[in-house]
Amino acid sequence: MTMFRQARWSEPVVYDISHDSKEGTLLDEEFKDYTSKFLSKIPKHIIRDALNIPSLSEVEVVRHFTRLSQMSYGVDLGPVPLGSCTMKYNPKICEELASDRRIVEAHPYLDEEDVQGLLEVLYTLQKWLSEIVGMDVCSLQTPAGAAGELAGALMIKKYHRDLGEAHRDEMIVPDSAHGSNPASAAMAGFKVVRIPTDSRGNTDIEALRAALSKRTAGVMLTNPNTLGLFEEYIVDIAREVHEIGGLLYYDGANLNGILGYARPGDMGFDVAHLNLHKTFAAPHGGGGPGAGAICAKGALVDYLPVPLVEYDGRKYYFKYDVPRTIGRISWFYGNIIPAVKSFLYIAALGPLVKEVAEVANLNTNYMLKKLSSLPGVDVVYGYGRWRKHEFVVSFEKLYKETGVSAEDVAKALLDRGLHAPTILFPLIVPEAHMIEVTETESRENIDHLINAYKEIINTAYTNPSEVKKSPQNTSVKRLDTVYGNLPKNIVLTYRSLKEKVT
Amino acid sequence: MPHPWIPSSYIKNELMKEIGISSILELFSDVPKELLLVRSLNIGFGKPLTEYQLVRVFDDLMKKNAYTYKVPPFLGGGVCFHHVPSVVKHVASRSEFYTAYTPYQPEITQGITRALFEYQSLVADLYAVDVVNASVYNGSTAMAEAVRLAVRATGRRIAVFSRSTHPEVVEVVRTWSEPVGISVSTVGYDRETGRIDLSELEDRVRKLKPAAVAVQTPNFFGIVEQDLKEISQVVHESGSLLIVYEDPIFTGILEAPGRLGADIIVGDTSSMGSGLNFGGPSAGILGIRDPEGKLLRQLPGRLIGYTKTVDGEDEGYIMVLQTREQHIRRERATSNITTNSTLEAIKAAVYVTLLGSSGLRKLGEAIAGRTVFLIERLESAGLEPAFKGGVYLREVLFRHSHVSNLRNFLKKHGVYIGPLVDRFYPELSNCGLVCVTEVHSKEDIETLAELVRMFSEVVTP
Asked: Given CB atoms, is A490 within the 8 Å cutoff of chain B?
């Protein structure tokens, strides 16, 4: 076994770090006399009397959080093959340039004429994204993918209302969809109709046809879907959805697999969201912030959230008069820093984005071929089809034969210094591993992953309890998700930790 | 053409051989022919750029930004220019943090779950509430989520807002709420004090019995709302919930909203380590005072909780109560939120820890003192606060008969104030915001006052 041992610091919760210092940063007190005037003007009961915040010296703050960082794991340490998350390498030059003072110190209420460079970046990115997805206009107002989904669902809702068709209250979503799709549809007030997946891994077109009705507002699809498979009937679906007056929504989480090869707009999608922190290399930040874009075609352009960045031939400006806009989905103009990183990423690659899709897909199929030949591993849907950016395998057989579950295998990967893929998703595949290695992993790294799987599976058949003990080499051993979720054990703050645990 | 960011682009042929294809196009054989893009995308600069070319291109673009702060900007409107300590930037640049994903494998990402647990704990203490989630996108979406949370918890469908809440926040709430039949009603402000009109609020609450009443303090005009306790009584008597939006920067000087009756607290970390970023990203703060445990199951967003290892010998932190979330509950989830603002939340935790109780107190006092000094100096230079009977904190709404020209005059000297608020409040023409924070020195404020005096002499000699 390749030895890996993650750092483990016996680092107390920040409240329990002992210290004699009182503060970690120097603040001036030059305005003390004026502060007293302020305090004399407001009632005593609205003045803060006590705070219970730990006070550490600067060096202790740095050590505390640096130690915590050493107990974390990201793309800079090794592959993070999480399916549908597109954990590609985040180029350092993009990080460096996006931290430019001329951006991070720009106030959102500066005049347009004073931020022409920034607006040009945002406008250009809107244009590039529109070209990539084959849509007319993209808005960067959405701070993340799910915010884009909400925006899209609200646009679809308003569109039907404006046509006097408010009775269209159903959103059709396949059972392989990301959970955020049905959640977003429900947030916009739609009833969600679930469609099964056929054996080739497509959205079941017969079931979809049967579900289409006068009540259909739209269909939300991810293409390639979460099985990594291109929806083979997409042209028919688009036509039939439009024929009954519905709209087609594109979840862009999986765009990496078709970048430069096929465009949602050409497929017939009316609205699309993109995740700039997936396809366009902005980092995930341990869960965020990301950045989204919401793109529209034809009549739906008039419904985009405001403001859009526009150009009149002389200057860039914020456009608020979008005739039927759903309004603001978030304040200001979106998550600018990740958006700038994506601008830089696309600027650096230019036409080579096609290379991204090619290698992402080659890596995927290379890994699928090797992994699916291992004992205990099954491909459930779309057997024999080429995958795009990701694939899903099932460890149900392994589980039945050895008692080693998909989760056990995932934990054993951690022990080898690798991050696990997305597990137990999509829900339609039992004991699933959903794997996306992206184009930024070398063949050596993929082989390393495959060998790790091989080793784990071998151990599962010879000594299953060994695998079930994983992980041993991470900073903590297997954590108990049941214990932490029992109502009597729920501890969400240090305050309640002190009350309940000690 | 291969590219170093795509290692195997140099060995595509070998990979093709491995999987048994002779043309890349075979991988796209299931894409209908008419959908295959035959031309190159018209993006980027027509060719790949070297790293230095990219630096040049970007620098040229950034040079087109005309603004230069001669003194730290006095721009306000919900977000202000605060110092981001070097320590915060340093910690956030640890790539174990920023290149990580959501901690779905907590054993290998204890650093992130721990830092988020500390964020939840610290922010809960700042606001004196029981639970704070692991962040949402920003203050505006935190408010939109807060309203929906209140709607779920009360079964009612009206939210009452003070008109002095950030207008863009209210716009966001409307976007998220009105299409699903949640209506927003606004209550005016007192023309003398700038505070919420208490009697109008009482009438409205009694009449509408809303799901929630939302108040921002200090409000959009910079005025400290002094009646939260009274407001909370009125709100609670009607079975409604009180949402308080407060920038966390004020929690060192103003009594915590949780102690004044707020049920749901909302804020944004722009002031606490995220910085301006032309408006984003920051982290949205969303928390609940929930003594009876009624709101917790309705709270959206990730929550980090304490647990033990399976062998019971050790402890750690994991995402808990995930059955509220979209990846499990799908259309019945409390929200669709997936990506949040973890890194910004970690920055806020670092920021708060760096200051500690005494630093937070001093910071609040530093801002309060500067606000008083600013008003004194600007009054003597001929600017009037728009609300004479109110107490301002950090931001001050000033009135000047030529406020737009004044703003432009100042800008020419590298001194920035604003925004003017008539675009949101037509009745407040000739009014603009001026914001002071811990970054402004006496000299900076004197410079501003001197320029205002110069301008006034030119306009009204």
From this structure: yes
Segment 102-121 of chain B within 8 Å of chain A by CB: 102-112, 114-115, 117-118, 120-121
Domains and CATH numbers, chain A: 14-70 (no CATH), 96-351 (3.40.640.10), 359-477 (3.90.1150.10)
A103 near B CB under 8 A: yes
Distance CA A259, CA A133 (A): 8
Give the model confidence (pLDDT) of B5-35 as tens digits: 999 999 999 999 999 999 999 999 999 999 9
Structure tokens at A138: 């993209």
Output the pLDDT for position B144. Answer: 98
Digit-coded pLDDT (tens) for A219-251: 999 999 999 999 999 999 999 999 999 999 999
Rounded Cα gap, residues B176 and A327, in angstroms: 9
Residue B2 CA to residue B8 CA, distance in Å, equals 8
- Residue B316 pairs with which residues in a beta bridge? B307
What is the dihedral sign for C-alpha A293, A297, A300, A304?
positive
Question: Is B62:A117 a contact under the CB 8 Å cutoff?
Answer: yes
How many CB atoms neighbour CB B416 within 10 A? Answer: 26
Q: Can you give the pLDDT at residue A2?
A: 56
Interface of A with B in 365-424 (CB under 8 A): 365-366, 369, 385-386, 388, 410-411, 414, 419-420, 422-423
Angle between helix B139-154 and B167-177 (nearest 10): 50
Residues 368-407 (B) with a CB less than 8 A from some CB of A: 368-373, 376, 391, 393
Q: Which domains does chain B have, with CATH numbers?
A: 7-54 (no CATH), 74-83+355-459 (3.90.1150.10), 86-351 (3.40.640.10)
